[in-house]
Design a protein that fits this description.
This protein is an all-alpha fold and 134 residues long. The protein has a domain of 88 residues. It is built from three helices and two strands. Helix 1 packs across helix 2 and helix 1 crosses helix 3. About 4% of the residues have low confidence.
Length: 134
């Protein structure tokens, strides 16, 4: 079976511009935006913000750990071996799935930009009212 290259699943564009190679500065900027959206003190990113920023820019997938879906008692089985089960079918890449992925990543980027602008507007309004909002 053909394995997909995980590098090919990264972001293609950001703020309507081609992304190119992800640099540490890009991850820093994205982490600061995430901290700003989440109203962190002094907009300082947490380690989770850094991880989310790197994940968004390199894989383009939201943060979700499949292990979180399992109860704690089932997350690790000390008995070696497992029961056989059918794996998920992997669809072939084609023009349609590529276009769908581009649209999906564009929508995610637009949502992120909307959150940043909404937070900026909220902070501006809070400053006008004399409330720090923190």
């Amino acid at each position: 079976m053909k394995m997909r290259n995980p590098i090919a699943d990264g972001k293609v564009s950001e703020h309507s511009r081609g992304l190119g190679t992800v640099t540490p500065e890009m991850v820093t900027t994205r982490a600061q935006e995430i901290a700003f959206i989440n109203r962190r003190p002094n907009d300082k990113p947490t380690p989770e913000d850094w991880a989310e920023a790197k994940r968004e820019l390199t894989t383009g997938h939201p943060a979700h750990d499949p292990a979180e879906d399992l109860p704690v008692s089932k997350r690790w089985d000390p008995v070696p071996g497992s029961t056989p089960r059918k794996t998920e079918a992997t669809s072939a890449d084609d023009e349609q799935t590529f276009a769908e992925n581009l649209v999906e990543s564009g929508v995610e980027e637009a949502e992120h930009e909307h959150m940043v602008e909404g937070t900026r507007e909220s902070v501006r309004r809070d400053h006008e009212l004399g409330d720090s909002g923190r």
